[in-house]
Amino acid sequence: MNFSGLRKIALVAVSVAMVAVACATPDIGPDATASLDREPTPTPTPEELAFDESNVPTPEPLNTVSEPTVEPTPSPEPGLTDELLRIGVIADITTGDFDDPRGRSAHDAIAAWASSVRSDGLAGREVVVKFINSGVGSHDEAIRTACESDLFALVGSWSRNDDDGLDVLLSPDCGLPDFVAEARTPNRRDSPGTYVSNPFPNDVVLSGPYAYFAETFPDAVQMTAIPVLNIPAEIIDAERLRETVTSQGWSVVSRPTVEVDADLAMAAQEIVDSGARTIVWGADGARLIGLLAQIANTEPTPELVDGEPVPTPTPTATPTPPVDSNGNPVVVVAEARWIVDCQQACYSQQWLADFAASQAENPLDVDVYVTLATVPFEEVTTQIELTNYIFWLGRSFPEAEPDAVGISAWAAGLLFEEAVNRATNAGTSQFDPDLLTRANVRDAVDTIDRWTASGLHGEASPAARQPSECFVVMRLVSGEWRRKYPFGPGNFECDDNLFTLVETAELGTEAQSPSLGGTN
Predict the structure, then answer these.
(1) Which residues contact 198 (CB under 8 A, 6 or more apart)?
(2) How much is the pLDDT for 2?
(3) Range list of β-strands (E), 230-313
(4) Quick check: helix, strand or coil at residue 85?
């Protein structure tokens, strides 16, 4: 089933739930497909309503009574009016040579989430989103833009180099609460002002999928290639991945460097010559398609003896097919020549279409897997929050397709929503929208434990910065992602799946200031 079919299922599910309130269909506000440079025009009057001290007359002294002391009016909280709550999302929208569209998914997901809360508001306010393009190499500039804008928080950001400009984000002059879709660099993961729905600290990784592959493909994982995209964040990730997989019994035989602006021939040759059977790649999905196409057209470098290639021996006998105890032939399902784990980089409908087109021209005997920490889109009928994401994404951006980054950004929106609700006592008789401050939102996050983002992922603790142990493995079969492990729609594998890094735990990190932006 493709995502168009999933969207229809989501639409039906949400439509049934909304029948009872069909006469009160919420107004979702301006067209969410508007340009990134456009912002919704607010209906109320925002800054004009701010208190103007210059218009207050100076009180006359009364005989011998001293002049009364006028208490200064506190500055309004950034990004807030009585009617509006302004947030920002930073994402790699333009990617140049990276050809990685996942930043757009974060942008779309937060716009869709804002539409989903607009009818009832958040802390009694309409959510307005400002989109800031970090363009892979301009994250520090994007941070400065966010800090100089009238924003209350960052929500759902996803950028490849997300530690650039972190000192500005944490400075007293900025101090934006930072609810990211994913903290992608060690310093961002360490940042005291950054909050993640399913947070992984620098010394903890999800190792369960690699234990599963070691048990399922014990021979193939002994010949593993980990190609490394030659940028600092990906080099660090590759080192952490090497320590993780070897802890689960894998052996790494090849680690070729892949240049951003070069062809893939040298990396493919190195992988083929190493005899590797398993490839792990978590960078851009398009480059993986190119690498596999190159491997399909690469022959091993011949062994030379006295300068002459050694011929490959030709089999002289046909192997006898296996039989059972009764002499009946046993059907053996052979492993593919190549086993590929693309983590989450391949988990989109567009990647499936592009890979199918490449396979038609460059066929390769390969099994491709993705490892997910969220409920698969193919199982939308098992999870109402997944239904909400797909429905609102389709309503806001009809051409957009769900992917793993988008659902992580949606989860970031849910975490921010929960923090705002807790900060203002929403849903109780003590609800007070004036309690919405950056400081109160930060304090509220520190109370969020046993958190699943309404069931999108396994139980985690944003307060304690402890990740979920849960995962799902999906396999590419006949052009579709199908659940491979564990068995049963909607289920996770959640038993003892975390590993504590030692060698690479502090790789790429540096101490961050504990300041979170003064008193805001």
Answers:
(1) 373, 408, 411, 453, 457, 458, 460, 467, 468
(2) 61
(3) 252-254, 257-258, 278-280, 304-305, 308-309
(4) strand
Mean pLDDT of the residues in the chain:
84
Q: What pLDDT is attached to residue 335?
A: 85
CA distance 384 to 455: 8
pLDDT at 135: 84
Are the beta carbons of 376 and 394 closer than 8 angstroms? no
Q: Which residue has the higher pLDDT, 65 or 151?
A: 151
Rounded CA-CA distance 182/454 in Å is: 18
Element (H, E) at 196: strand 194-196
Strands 194-196 and 498-500: unpaired
Residue 331 CA, chain-centre distance (Å), reads 41
Give 292's Cβ-side CA count (13 Å radius).
32
Picking from 112-126, 290-304, 309-323, 499-513, which range would have the lowest pLDDT averaged per residue?
A: 309-323
Q: What is the DSSP string of 410-472?
A: HHHHHHHHHHHHHHTTTTSTT--GGG--HHHHHHHHTT--SB-TTTTBS-BBTTTTB----BE
Q: For residues 372 and 347, is the Cβ–Cβ distance under 8 A? A: yes
* 126 strand-pairing partners: 84
Q: What is the mean pLDDT of residues 326-354?
A: 83
The continuous run of DSSP H or E covering 13 comes out as: helix 3-18
Interatomic CA distance for residues 217 and 43, integer angstroms: 59
Confidence bin at 98 (pLDDT 50/70/90): low
Are the C-beta atoms of 368 and 340 separated by less than 8 Å?
yes
What pTM value is reported for the model? 0.82
Q: How far is CA 228 from CA 279, 312, 327, 375, in A?
A: 11, 31, 48, 28
Q: Does position 294 have pLDDT exceeding 50, yes or no?
A: yes
Locate tokens 């996050």: which residue?
A: 445
Residue found under tokens 């995502």: 3
The tokens of 332 are what?
Answer: 């053996």
Q: Which residues share a beta bridge with 368?
A: 340
The number of helices, as runs of H, and strands, as runs of E, in the chain is: 13, 18
- Quick check: 45 pLDDT over 80? no
Q: Is 181 exposed, middle or buried (0-12, 13-18, 19+ CB in 10 A)?
A: buried
**If we measure between CA atoms, which residue out of 201, 184, 205, 207 comes closest to residue 463?**
201
pLDDT digits (tens, 9 = 90+) for 468-489: 999 999 999 999 999 999 999 9
CA dihedral 388, 391, 397, 402 (to 10 degrees): 70
Model confidence pLDDT, tens digit, residues 425-484: 999 999 999 999 999 999 999 999 999 999 999 999 999 999 999 999 999 999 999 999
For 460, counting Cβ atoms within 10 Å of its Cβ (0-12 exposed, 13-18 middle, 19+ buried), the class is buried
282-305 in b/e burial notation, b at 16+ Cβ within 10 A? bbbbbbbbbbbbbbbebeeeeeee
